Amino acid sequence: MAFADRLNHVETSAIRELFKLLGKPGIISFAGGFPDSAMFDVGGIREATSRALAEEPGGALQYGATEGYQPLREQLSAFMAAKGAQGVAPDNLIVTTGSQQALDLLGKTLISPGDKVIVEGPTFLATIQCFRLYGAELISAPIDGQGVKTDALEALIAEHKPKFVYLIPTFGNPSGALLSAERRKAVLEMAVRHQTLIVEDDPYGDLYFGDAPPPSLLGLSASVPGSRELLVHCGSLSKVLSPGLRVGWMIAPPELLAKATMCKQFSDAHTSTFAQATAAQYLKAGRMPATLAHVRQVYAERAQAMGDALRRELGDAIDFVPPQGGLFIWARLTGAGGKVADGNVFAKRAIDKGVAFVPGTPFYCAHPDHATLRLSFATADVDKIREGVARLGQAL
Amino acid sequence: MAFADRLNHVETSAIRELFKLLGKPGIISFAGGFPDSAMFDVGGIREATSRALAEEPGGALQYGATEGYQPLREQLSAFMAAKGAQGVAPDNLIVTTGSQQALDLLGKTLISPGDKVIVEGPTFLATIQCFRLYGAELISAPIDGQGVKTDALEALIAEHKPKFVYLIPTFGNPSGALLSAERRKAVLEMAVRHQTLIVEDDPYGDLYFGDAPPPSLLGLSASVPGSRELLVHCGSLSKVLSPGLRVGWMIAPPELLAKATMCKQFSDAHTSTFAQATAAQYLKAGRMPATLAHVRQVYAERAQAMGDALRRELGDAIDFVPPQGGLFIWARLTGAGGKVADGNVFAKRAIDKGVAFVPGTPFYCAHPDHATLRLSFATADVDKIREGVARLGQAL
After folding, report:
1. Domains and CATH numbers, chain A
2. Which of A122, B21, B177, B217 is 20 to 30 Å from A228 at the Cα level?
């Protein structure tokens, strides 16, 4: 069978093989990129669905507008305002089938084969593959513990004149890094200076452990004239409420939003109105603040436990910035004391000891740092985290 | 803003303008392509969701496999067998976000810019736009009251060597036509003869009014050696249960299914597990046969009422084959007695008289027949249908 040329640009995920091993009995997994099912507010979701089916069964079960179910767009507009992004009217956003679809629509709408897109190195694996399917040439911008290095980013923008820049500024995947307020402002200013579109992917921003992080790029855009018209913001309920609903959203300038809506019409007509009506009722019921408070507290404890255990068990053989939110610790093997310094080698040894994580290399679109690894603290409880990290110590 | 080149191949739907007029007070609409909300089994769906959340909340709310929620794949396998397509194992299908996404995945997986695809003239509007976004050059195969003309189709296949042929053999949209058993066999035989992939889109096959239609191409493929490996079958719960769930499926040869799954991973990760678990419980509860029986009976009455009224009110100025299933009457203005013979002109006059339908021209990818129109009998009750057709008579 002859497939489309665009499939030559992607390969089956290198970490698929690893994930097959996760079924081994007794494995403690730090490999996933998902929230803990035990924290889903099942009762609240059940109530929300019941209300949706009782109050407007037609709306929840019939075809809907490609742009999204209007009551949900209104709730999301209010949700964004509560997070510090004022002035996002319901019509300034479309509902997407998870934020993965927002990425796909950006690719479909914006990327012609050969177009350049700048992403962080490392960045979200499915972003790399998604954009490559549309023929993008990806350029890697370096990061440190404070997120993307803005001087380097600006030099890359000037050199490559990309179609857009894709960033996860808040508790990035896999980096866990929090882009500083100063750098956020710098990103918006360079967007205006170079008239470059910036895509802010923000699925983790609500999962902070202590003080709230700086405002999103979207929230800050009010203070940088001309930046709002160059900004796309992708949000999601997946990490804070439930991935299974597949409810995300995209905020973008009107012209881009209209084109993305047209593309979405031919991608899946619209996002499940059944899921949208449920999400709308959930937000309307006002349960989100308590849900977020609970999730933040649990993940904060787990992050702390993992950080402490890593210091204790692996000492100076590993280096990392303790995360202030999100789901991940991004770490680097130092090779101190002649210990293993390659993430892939370490991952295989770890599996043999009964613990799994994802080595860092697949998260780079170019020039991978082979010493890196991503550890999720989201799905194992504190005892399991301690036991898993002890096994990591043995594997090292 | 500079958009991707692929957007140059599509235009905003010509019938969007028409749909804006549907909000006019008192309009009777035969324009929609959707089922009647009043027939949704709301109670059954509520029960199914409750069971899904009670029995396996994690499965309904967590991330799931891109291929689909396994209990739903099992139910759909059984559903296909009950409809006469034996031997479709759960692993032979993937769940899609409505059958629209199956079309999108076929485009993404198979179509390189400039590739040829043969479709019926007329065919489903969103198929035309979906494939064009991937750069397909569409070739139009003529139809009559028995569906696609197979001699003409074979000549086009021989001439154009298309990437694939897309057909809606059973109660097509907009044609309403039922492809005869003889022609079905001919299609499968020419697929083997020319080694051409055939895509069977089948959202309406369950909506028959009298006897069941001939088996689907998929069902028949067992009797034509070598045809099964050249066949894709797209199914959907949208027309028979609820479009809002966005649950469709695609059955395809393993190699194609694997590539489509990879593409789906970067399109939306997976279809809402919340909707999938609900659909699985609904099918498992055994409610579908009664739901189908009810829907068939109501639509049969409405189709009959519309056909009778058209004969009575429009006489020999209109020509159509009474549908044996589906949602649509596809008609042709004859111009008899000097009456209007252009579907677009007639549509405008009809709106002035308080009744809406879709003129036929947008359904053609080439060489439109301007005398055609599509009338949906699905969403208006029998009294409204009679009143609406009387208005059509006045408009004529």
Report:
1. 7-41+290-395 (3.90.1150.10), 43-286 (3.40.640.10)
2. A122
